[in-house]
Amino acid sequence: MDAFAVDMPSLTRDYLPTSVRQGRGPLAELMRKNALYSVFQPIVDLRNGSVYAHEALVRGVEGTPLFGADALFQAARVEGLLFEFELYCIGVALEGWGRLQEPGRLFVNISADALVDVVQRQGCTKLVHLVRSFRVLPRMLVLELTEHERVNNMDQLIDVVREVRAAGLSLALDDFGDGRSSLRLWSQVKPEIVKIDKYFTKDISQHADNLQTLQALKQIATIFGTQLVAEGIETKDDLRVLRDLDLAYGQGYLLGRPELLPRVKVKELALEVLNDTLVSIFPASGRVSRSGVLRGLSVQQAPCAGIHTTNDQLSVLFLQHPELHAIAIVDQGRPLALVNRHEFMTHYATQYYREVHGRKPCLANANHAPRLVERDHNVDELVGILTSQDQRYLTEGFIVTENGRHIGLGTGDQLVRSVTEVRLEAARHANPLTFLPGNIPISQHIERLMDAGADFVACYADLNHFKPFNDHYGYWRGDEMIRLVAKLALAHCDAKRDFVGHVGGDDFIFLFQSSDWAQHCEAIVQEFSERALTLFDDAARLAGGIQAEDRQGAQRFFPFTTLSIGAVRIQRGQYGHAEEVANAAALAKHDAKVHGAGLFVRGAADILPV
């Protein structure tokens, strides 16, 4: 730990520790020659597009292997100068920032252990005095904690953090989520700012899981009173999503690269995104949740039998508990078998059964391969139980376990009901047939459009004569037709501007921000009419339709299935809730179906021709 024992003057170029002055490596030589300098990358307020702060980043000699920060720190490790170099970089950053006298905050990187060593050895007062000597105000300095995995003493760090904060300096946590950062560190240090690693922000416009992670981190930040900085912003789509997530700050090449002179304004391309009124389309999960857990599964508390329990003793248990449909046989908490009440009592009531078998172990008459359902089973695993060939659980029930240990019993109807409830809840988020966003994300996107004051068009799409088609050709062909609508809607809508949702069945909702939304709708209707013909057989194509039962059960002729889209223009302040918008779109759909296939704009004088 001798490397920590550097004097505070080593933060300046005029005072170098002995290890640097006598060092023979290329980095030590660069430090002696004052060949290192700082560049400054802006941290931007995503709410108004202003430059909030700058992060100081060290640079070496351009065109050489020792130019970037990663290479320089690797050289410091090799030469055994890691902590000396760390403090030297802070000095370079403070010297450069003080010379420029720019407004705004300065973020400088320091490892947690280096901060502890400096403050404990030389005191926070001396650190503040040194910061001021560079003409930098302590309240404008943010110490960005790095190398989280190297925190050797958390208690010491917390004490130092308390001193640093009392001296007027602020703290940030760097690269949270990079695999080394700790939620415990965030909780205990309670930094003013946490920087989210670019793993979670890069291509966030395409990754629903990362979006949900950021939403969760926002909730944690609210609890701890922390502001978030999204790192690694490089594309307009990602910036728009992060802006609409209401993250406070962002950093990345799209906003501004590290430069010798601090940026006064955000790059124009990024400013256009931050100031536009386009509401981003949050990425959908693309699947029904596979991690749903039956936490609400009803467990029937029940006594259990042991491996030596006799048939007579088991009959007494059943008589004492008339509500039980079965009893589990358990050995040291581990379920071995299940005895069905009806089957056992039927045998037990037969002539001479008690005399011959009453004192024998009941294990001989049990099902030795019962259904075991873990309390935290994945939904897909449970669906496998429901669809398996072995359906004995419907009459026998099943044993509920927690970490493999018996905790009670369940019935077949409970299992079916629980799985159905989880599936229905999942379908509200993502339709299981098309994987398009369901009712909940549809409502959420409408709310986001309304909150942003955006003008948009809400369209409700529905198939004409779909039920006869579905009845005539079967559900598999009907599902294929519904998937065709989804495919065409995604193909003809602008993924960056327009939202496509699946309400259920053959009902869809499109939320357009594209100015040419009517052409998109017309293209969907037209292409559907052409491609849906392939789903009919040759005889139907020749006849122009099919003979099928109507809703009253009478046979009649139905023409080919077509698509109707009802549209309503939504203006700022026109509606107060998402349900009102959805209802207006549904009324437009009704008008469209009354008028026949095609696009109908509610409130317009005429049907737009298709």
TrEMBL record:
Coiled coil region boundaries: none
Q: Ranges for the GGDEF domain?
A: 454-605
Entry superkingdom: Bacteria
Q: Which PROSITE patterns match?
A: EAL, GGDEF
Q: What Pfam families does UniProt report for this protein, alphabetically?
A: EAL, GGDEF
Task: Indicate the segments forming the EAL domain, all copies.
Answer: 20-272
Q: What is this protein called?
A: Diguanylate cyclase (GGDEF)-like protein
Q: What is the scientific name of the source organism?
A: Rhodoferax ferrireducens
